[in-house]
Design brief:
Elements lengths: L5 E5 L3 H13 L3 E6 L2 H11 L3 E5 L8 H12 L3 E5 L4 H8 L5 E3 L4 H27 L1
Parallel strand pairs: 1-2, 1-3, 3-4, 4-5
Helix pairs in contact: 2-3
Length: 136
């Protein structure tokens, strides 16, 4: 049996974090960590090496979700899906430039599952292409 995909959740609201954690587990995903700041997101991603990060755009602390997501994508090569309850257009544009999607809260099961499956499928294709190019 294949190992279930691993996801790190970055959400600074406890109730929302627990809600999405429960949903992901019920859908068969493994949640490696639930963290509340951009700095913790980077550390947890380095440690857990997840398949995907679900990143709230607005976070407490010095670093917002877009900054943390950019670091995770460029330095750690882990895909990021952003989540938001309400954000200004400038932030949404910053997040959307290099992301695999933006999912709005409250979460719609079909929307978030589709975004996750799409991101994981793209990651698998990228990994296969990388392995093929290294084998040549």
């Amino acid at each position: 049996m294949a190992t279930p995909p691993t996801i790190v959740i970055v959400e600074d609201e406890c109730i929302a974090a627990e809600d999405i954690r429960r949903r992901l587990v019920s859908w068969g995903y493994r949640v490696a960590a639930v963290v509340a700041t951009g700095e913790d997101a980077i550390r947890s991603t380095e440690k857990a090496q997840p398949d995907l990060v679900l990143m709230d755009i607005r976070l407490k602390g010095k670093m917002d979700g877009v900054e943390a997501g950019e670091c995770i994508r460029t330095r750690l090569h882990v895909p990021v899906i952003y989540t938001t309850a309400n954000s200004d257009n400038e932030t949404l544009l910053r997040a959307g430039v290099d992301s695999l999607g933006i999912v709005t809260k409250p979460y719609d099961d079909v929307e978030i599952r589709t975004a996750i499956e799409h991101a994981l499928a793209l990651r698998e294709v990228e990994l296969r292409l990388l392995r093929t190019s290294l084998a040549v």
